[in-house]
Amino acid sequence: MSVLRRILGVILGFVVASAVMMLIEFTNGHLFYPELGRAAQGMKDPAQIATLMARAPVGALLVVIAGWLLGAIAGGWATTRIARTDSGTPALSLGLLLTLAGIANNLMLPPPLWFWVLGLAVMIPGAWYGGRLAGTA
Fold first, then answer.
1. CA distance 101 to 124
2. Which of 6, 31, 53, 82 has a CA between 20 and 30 Å from the CA of residue 110?
3. How many domains is the chain partitioned into structurally?
4. Each residue of 5-30: pLDDT tens digit?
5. CB 72 within 8 A of CB 122
6. CB–CB of 71/17 below 8 Å?
7. What's the CA dihedral at 22, 25, 29, 31 to 10 degrees?
8. b/e per residue 74-110 (b: at least 16 CB within 10 A)
9. CA-CA distance, 109 to 104, in Å (whole number)?
10. Which domain holds residue 128?
């Protein structure tokens, strides 16, 4: 039963992390960089998307990274609470999944190199810290 609980924890933690990230990105897209949200909806050409990402204000991209960090923390917390384990493994597994999802996202919307490095560097530590905040890891 504990293996199933850990798997369920990682799955639901991923949902929590994704919801937090999407909420922050949605808010960011409407408040700080609204042309990204409007333009990206109709864009299919990767070159156009790359141009749009290259013109994105640094502040808007930093908000996205902050959202990824907060999402990873919230997801790590939820994963650990659901998994009910003293091991940090479920939270770290979530961090790895979030990193893979971040890579997929960055391949679809090619951001600047610094965003790659910083954005992917927050996932595993954020999920681990969320697990620690849960009090059982």
1. 12
2. 31
3. 1
4. 899 999 999 999 999 999 998 888 77
5. yes
6. yes
7. 110
8. bbbbbbbbbbebeebbbbbbbbebbbebbeeeeeebe
9. 9
10. 2-133
The C-alpha atoms of residue 118 and residue 12 are separated, in whole angstroms, by 25
> pLDDT (tens digit, 9 = 90+) per residue, 42-100?
667 777 777 777 888 888 889 999 999 999 999 999 999 999 887 889 999 999 999 99
CA distances from 115 to 54, 68, 99, 109, 130 (A): 11, 11, 13, 11, 22
> Could you tell me the two tokens for 57?
């204000």
Closest CA to 120 of 100, 137, 136, 135: 100
